[in-house]
Design brief:
The chain has a 3-stranded antiparallel beta sheet, with no helix packed on it. Strands 1-2 form a two-stranded antiparallel ribbon. It has 3 domains: about 280 residues, set domain protein methyltransferase, domain 1; about 110 residues, set domain protein methyltransferase, domain 2; about 140 residues, no CATH class. Helix content is about 40%, strand content about 10%. Helix 4 crosses helix 9 and helix 15 packs antiparallel against helix 18. The protein has 19 helices and 11 strands. The chain is mainly alpha-helical.
Length: about 625
């Protein structure tokens, strides 16, 4: 499913519908002459029963199996006859995506491809087979998303009478979308992931677009507001819950926003056969000079190779949410996991902190994206607020403002007095999430799928594997964050201990601290350049055999330290277990605490420096 510059959706993707309560003049239409529509018998029931959902999907008379080439080849022939230029790509069955566009000739890097003319692009301004239906929706100012969803259903119901019949016949009858997961499947397979909440919210929004769920949804309810008033234009046998689920599934997986067409959203036949690759950065757009939708390759392709575009910089969870697939673990540099942070009601300043949060659009339970490359400044600001004592009450609002995405001021401000408590709060939240993922993954191997039908068994196995892949990738990011936070605590402790032992000046301590990090960064080859250890910075060790750092071989350090660093090179490699603890010096015979070190064990320079420099980031945490 092609997407370039794909629309980044909040789950509340229909906010403008709530403003449609203004009075409309009822448009009077005489019974139009309609081509015979294909009707679908379906109720409004939102039952989560798997068999019922599967049966309803099978009743759709349009679309095809997702790996069908017959309808796709018919689409290609129709597009060519309708003005699509000769292509260097053809539709074939592929390993990634089941159907995809494959190079038929050599394709150079930087070459412009596709050239789909505007006449073959579906937008909110496209002509309807039933013009009266389109006029009614425009009279009610229905936004693009629900309008296009209704348009797809309307055109599909006219079958061969619709100009788009060849395109609709090539669309999957049941898109790979979380819209087709039942509530029981979401609860069971995504119980550890925050994507579950977003999926439930998205499904609720889609259902609420068609039928009333809550009293406040009455202005979102197309059935109540429009369809019931014009039953001859929008018969319930055609416009019902199952057909809307199908059309929104198509939109989520195929709709693109074209920047050069003033950000207009569109369905682009042929282009939407392109699959996504995390390694590709090219996307679709409208080219004014050639007057067509194009993309420019960022690499060369040989005949027989599948051609890819980017669906946008999305996490694995977002890709599953909209497109129904999860990239292979470790291949998505934009992967992230939503970390939930919560203000406890037992906090003695709960009322004051919550008031500050609400003032800036935050809540007592807030999610922040945690990436393999770090975490946002807003997350650290939220952690400062939660960890702050009553004596800092005057700064509550300042912290809440920094934690909000509504302002860009003071986001870099730190609070050294509570930094350790804030980091501890984040670490506790990471470990709580890790335990949920681990529990699910351990139980997934023996999970009863509760089905007897071979077809349903295959479906459940497929859904479970998607969930396992997602949970593994999200837990990996949490492990990474956990490891780096422990490393922060570790280095801070070592520096404080050194200061106490040697009575060195603040200047020497800071210089030594910088040299430690510079040595570590330089020796690890792919670490980001740093001058200090800051929260939010994550260090990436891509591939390196060394499991320790020989500080004396690189950047000079204060004499008292360099004299002792020679012992480091003789240390054995750090163990790579999952999740790995921080490695301790062999001199340390005391039990380690939760950060992997024992304060009492650092009784001299040699053992402390050896332990500090033996830290290596295991490849299982950082390899991309």
């Amino acid at each position: 499913m092609a997407e370039a510059c794909r629309i980044i959706l909040n789950t509340t993707f229909l906010p403008s519908l709530y403003s449609l309560h203004k009075t409309h003049k009822k448009v009077s239409y005489s019974q139009p002459f309609l081509h015979k529509r294909h009707t679908i018998q379906c109720s409004i029931s939102t039952s989560s029963d798997t068999k019922a959902a599967a049966k309803a999907a099978e009743t759709l008379p349009w679309g095809c199996d997702i790996d069908s080439l017959e309808n796709a080849e018919a689409l290609q022939k129709w597009l060519s006859e309708s003005g699509l230029p000769s292509q260097k790509m053809g539709i074939q069955k592929v390993e990634v995506g089941e159907r995809g566009l494959v190079a038929l000739k050599n394709i150079r890097k930087g070459e412009m491809l596709l050239f789909v003319p505007p006449s073959l692009v579906i937008t909110a301004d496209s002509e309807w087979s039933c013009p009266e239906a389109g006029e009614v929706l425009k009279q009610y100012s229905v936004p693009d998303w629900p309008l296009l969803a209704t348009y797809l259903i309307s055109e599909a119901s006219f079958e061969k009478s619709s100009r788009w019949s060849n395109y609709i016949s090539a669309l999957p009858r049941q898109p790979y979308s979380l819209l087709y997961w039942t509530r029981a499947e979401l609860d069971r397979y995504l119980e550890a992931s925050q994507i579950r909440e977003r999926a439930i919210e998205r499904i609720t929004n889609v259902i609420g677009t068609y039928a009333l769920i809550f009293p406040l949804d009455r202005y979102n309810d197309l059935r109540l507001r429009i369809f019931s008033k014009y039953p001859h234009l929008f018969p319930e046998e055609v416009f019902n819950m199952e057909t809307f689920k199908w059309s929104f599934g198509i939109l989520f997986s195929r709709l693109v926003r074209l920047p050069s067409m003033d950000g207009r959203v569109a369905l682009v036949p042929w282009a939407d056969m392109l699959n996504h690759s995390c390694e590709v950065e090219t996307f679709l757009d409208y080219d004014k000079s050639s007057k067509g939708v194009v993309f420019t390759t960022d690499r060369s392709y040989q005949p027989g190779e599948q051609v890819f575009i980017s669906y946008g910089r999305k996490s694995n969870g977002e890709l599953l949410l909209s497109y129904g697939f999860v990239p292979r673990e470790g291949t998505n540099p934009n992967d992230s996991v939503e970390l939930s942070l919560s203000l406890k009601k037992s906090d003695e300043c709960y009322k004051e902190k919550l008031e500050a949060m609400k003032k800036h659009g935050l809540s007592a339970s807030q999610c922040f994206p945690l990436q393999v490359t770090g975490w946002p400044l807003e997350l650290m600001a939220y952690a400062y607020l939660v960890a702050s004592p009553p004596s800092m009450s005057r700064q509550f609002e300042e912290m809440a403002a920094a934690a909000s995405n509504k302002t860009t001021t003071n986001k870099n401000k730190t609070y050294p007095d509570i930094e350790e408590q804030a980091l501890q709060f984040i670490l506790d939240s990471c470990e709580s999430s890790i335990s949920k993922y681990t529990k699910f993954l351990q139980a997934s191997g023996s999970m009863d799928l509760d089905v007897t039908s071979p077809k349903q068994l295959n479906r459940r196995l497929f859904l479970k594997q998607l969930a396992v892949d997602l949970c593994n990738s999200e837990r990996r990011i949490l492990f990474r964050a956990q490891y780096v936070q422990k490393l922060i605590f570790y280095v801070k402790f070592c520096i404080d201990k050194l200061k106490g032992i040697e009575q060195q000046t603040i200047t020497n301590i800071e210089m030594w601290k910088q040299n430690i990090h510079q040595s570590y960064a330089f020796h690890q080859n792919s670490l980001a350049p740093i001058t200090c250890f800051r929260p939010g910075l994550v260090y990436t060790r891509r591939s390196r055999d060394e499991a320790y750092v020989d500080a004396s071989a690189l950047i000079p350090v204060p004499e008292t330290v360099s004299l002792l660093s020679s012992s480091v090179s003789s240390l054995p490699p750090a163990p790579a277990i999952d999740p790995p603890p921080l490695r301790r010096s062999s001199r340390n015979s005391h039990p380690s605490n939760r950060y992997g070190y024992s304060p009492e064990g650092f009784n001299n320079h040699k053992s402390m420096v050896a332990t500090l420099f033996s830290i290596a980031i295991p490849s299982s945490y950082s390899k991309l």
